Amino acid sequence: PTRMDWLMLLLATPVQFGVGKRFYVSAYRGLVHGCTMGMDFLVAMGTSSAYLYSIIVFVLQLIAKDNGEYDASIMDLVPTFETGAWLITFVTLGKYLEAYARGKTAGALQTLMELQPVSATRAILPDDVLKMMKEVQSSEEMDAEEKNDNITKIFSKVHVNSLPTEEKDISEIRIGDFLLVLPGGRIPTDGVLVAREGTSKIDAAEKNDGCAYIDESAFSGEPFPVAKRPGDSLYGASVNQLSVILIQVTATGSETVLSRIVRLVDEAQGNRAPIQAQADRIASIFAPCVMMLAVVTFVCWAVFLDSSKGSLSDRYVQALMSAISVVVVACPCALGLATPTAVMVGTGVGAVNGLLIKGGAVLESAFNVKTVVVDKTGTITTGRAVVGSKIEYVSQLLKEGGDNDGWPKQLLRDLPAAVRLQDAAFWFACCAELRSEHPLGHAIINAGREIWGHDILKPVSRDRAAADQTEELTISEFQVVPGRGVECTINNIGSNTSCQVRVGSRSWVTDDVEANTLSSGDITSQSDDDVRSLRAGGQIGVYVSVKTTTMNTFHIIGVIGIVDPLKNEARSTIAALKNLGVDVWMCTGDHELTANAVARKIGIDEDNVCSSVSPEGKADLIRRLQKRRVNGKHGRLVENRVAFVGDGINDAVALARSDVGIAIGAGTEVAVEAADIVLVRS
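Given the sequence above, the corresponding structure tokens read:
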């Protein structure tokens, strides 16, 4: 052997038995536990055969050299230590690329778990309150609504902010404990709302007293916070918005909604290797056949080789070399070399076009996709609330008042000069929302600042000179009633001195009085029709009303439509998919009316729209669509490959369950990591 042969032996041995150890272990376990010969068995046998062949040649040449016998047939043989090393290197590279893509799933699960707080603030309730709570909750005579009403009465005299508290690790929290959650904080675990205490002035007679805003967009996909009343369920890891709340724990650990989502993502990823499973099934048949062919080759060369061409030992050596060659050739080196190369080229081309593609199997699955399911919020729409429509009734009120110097004329006469008649209702709404923290309020304020500048109380107009105000306008008595709306008083507004403004639901802005006394032909009925029309168009209708010192009740002066606008490419993308023969669905946690309105705008059939769907429901829809059979090439029925496009935590399960998960790059980290393809430029 030459010095190069010795060097190759020293370099190839650690690769063969060090790097290749995982193939030997996997092959051994497959034989012992399942009596199967999979792809790892072929790799182990092929590379071992190449290494064994090289060792035999190396030893024979060494013996011949020591004995001084220079048999040309032996000395011409070349050890191929590098063959096994290269095969193991390429196959290991392919395994690494696959493991890297799958490792992103582990990162997604870790990110999901990190959403849950590691500690919680446990509230210590007085003994008399605990006793009354137990009596109410254990009562069999009360229904759920009566229990909630009694619990609300119990906590009506309890100052939530004044309760003694203690910090506890989340593992120490038990079902039935009471937890205090501050504004902006994540809810530690699943529970029910017991009480809230904010800074707003709330009438004790209000039916909605005690409700709070909770951001559940991670679970439902709903872009706006949800109003929760005492007795309503809360999800762990959702975000408390405006006020201090007290919750009672109903589930901990693996029983929470977040833990169930984590399990579903894990199970979905674990069941997502049909191609690999098929390859292993083929290998389990192919490997025994290769071994049988190697044996047959050895027998044929040993028995039927012409004896005149060499001695019996030469015939056996030749037979062994031929058998080893069969095993080496059968090693899946083509997969080990071609697959990583194809993956790197394909993902490189995708990266140039703004696509992050995680693995070669994704490319194969994407080619066969027949159905695409899209999320709505953040995928089809921008996920940011903006003002879509402004409807005012001030002009109509002036016409109905005629020449009389009634409250509409007095009110409009006192408006700042920069506020036009058609924008009067919207300006009042902006004033009321100045101190609001609700996303709908932010949308109104942002739109108002585009018209009148940063300071709403000192409006300016580009094409209309602003008159000097004799006195500076101020806002006072601001209050928020979660689930209903906001109210404020505008001071120093002309001869009226002050004016009260309400923005929110119909019952709130009419004070529940006007609604019962007005006929069907008045402004209130017209505003109801306008709100229904806005709702049918996918917008949220918000009423605006005012009351001056000369008025006994609030009067509606306008309606504002808030919308989550469509992305610019939404319509063209859906049209392009349909032109390719792809069946397009929309699945969202949003309301049915909103979902159908968006679907009509972008061209998705209403029969293909699923609304108010939970994260588990989205995964179930994917599973049901995958069971369908669709027309493939030449009219044959084939499996329905389903792709899902989403951006939120609530989409993680569906992204993992689908054949191809596509995440919006601007979406949550969990969605990006759980997906197969990421739209980087979105």
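The CA atoms of residues 506 and 512 lie 8 Å apart. Try to locate this feature in the token string yourself.
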